[in-house]
């Protein structure tokens, strides 16, 4: 018999199971970067459920089991994950990685994703990016980098992604199977935006390399792009 699975929470079920006190993933000892990442990846979407079940070539079955049985399934079943479960995962990551501080220090979500996806599960990179016609680069998530812009007070994710790609002269080489986006920095010392509106859908038409698009003047297929 295979491992038990619970589907991601949708619509009314998501509100019923996840709303209220003592819901979500319990924080402990600088775990917020991992708690927020795990909640985003698994609570309401199944796009990355292969991480929980697939026997990837390099896959560490122990870490995969903890992720599935102690974190994702309880989150989807009861809406709550206790801090000890996340600490169990952090201890395993410390054993497997070259870094000894996964159990106590605050990390960047990208560092966590690279470790678990690349080194522990052996998943192929999710994104292929190209900057200014140079060699394409592969990665697991995209972090929004941009200068402070006065006209953006309460931006949405669509605006942030488009402006970040534009300022870095970036294009997506192909449509990604999963597009993990890390929002701009928000720490004790510095907050770029006090709020960001989630875009429920993301239009990546203008972010794709060599994708046919219409001319904004005549409506035919465009031959030139003006940034």
UniProtKB/TrEMBL annotation:
The keyword Cytoplasm applies. GO terms for biological process: protein deubiquitination. Keywords: Cytoplasm, Hydrolase, Microtubule. Residues 24-204 form the Peptidase C19 ubiquitin carboxyl-terminal hydrolase domain. It comes from the Eukaryota. Its main location: cytoplasm. PROSITE patterns: USP_1. GO terms for molecular function: cysteine-type deubiquitinase activity. It is found in: Cytoplasm, Cytoskeleton, Spindle. Pfam families: UCH. InterPro entries: Papain-like_cys_pep_sf, Peptidase_C19_UCH, USP_CS. Gene3D superfamilies: Cysteine proteinases. One of its GO terms (cellular component) is microtubule. This is CYLD hydrolase.
